[in-house]
């Protein structure tokens, strides 16, 4: 075990492990600023989190369309799905300030258990290969089981093969607990 951890540490490269791009389409300046501020709060030099407005759910302040249903006053945001279109609507007179409502809604959307850089790193780095909310030896076992193969499982740099580059990226995200 100690040899494995030493090898994992030796494989680490300095510098950023990549970036996480979050696809969201905020409508209006207030929502765009709130989303950018929320993403900046979970961004780190090792894993910068940026906004990509080319896709993802539409974010609106208030209901959308002429038949928008009124908000329950106790609800800060709600999810509306119609076919393949996802829309997160924020209550303009809700119980939370817009910045907090955006963080709460995005935490649910991104599967973060907390709005922290550590939670973002686990959820967005791709190194949590078994999806249990931790980057640990179980994830390393999955990566090593696929080492040398052409597969997407364990392919952290998305070059269609699991190799030393993926091991280096994993080692930057791994934390011994």
Automatic annotation (TrEMBL):
Span of domain EF-hand: 115-150
Drop me one GO molecular function for this one: calcium ion binding
SUPFAM superfamilies on file: Type I dockerin domain (SSF63446)
Q: Which GO BP terms apply? A: polysaccharide catabolic process
**Coiled-coil segments on the chain, per record:** none
What highest taxon heads this organism's lineage?
Answer: Bacteria
Signal peptide annotation: 1-19
Q: What is this protein called?
A: EF-hand domain-containing protein
């Amino acid at each position: 075990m100690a040899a494995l951890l030493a090898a994992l540490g030796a494989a680490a490269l300095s510098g950023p492990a990549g970036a996480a791009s979050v696809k969201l389409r905020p409508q209006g300046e207030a929502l765009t600023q709130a989303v950018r501020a929320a993403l900046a709060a979970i961004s780190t030099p090792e894993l910068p989190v940026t906004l990509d407005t080319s896709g993802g759910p539409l974010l609106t302040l208030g209901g959308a369309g002429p038949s928008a249903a009124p908000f329950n006053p106790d609800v800060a945001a709600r999810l509306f799905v119609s076919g393949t279109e996802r829309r997160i609507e924020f209550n303009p007179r809700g119980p939370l300030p817009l910045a907090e409502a955006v963080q709460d809604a995005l935490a649910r959307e991104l599967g973060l258990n907390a709005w922290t850089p550590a939670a973002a790193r686990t959820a967005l780095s791709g190194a949590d290969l078994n999806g249990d909310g931790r980057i640990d030896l179980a994830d390393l076992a999955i990566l090593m089981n696929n080492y040398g193969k052409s597969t997407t499982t364990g392919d952290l740099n998305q070059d269609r093969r699991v190799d030393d580059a993926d091991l280096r990226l994993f080692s930057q995200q791994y934390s011994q607990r």
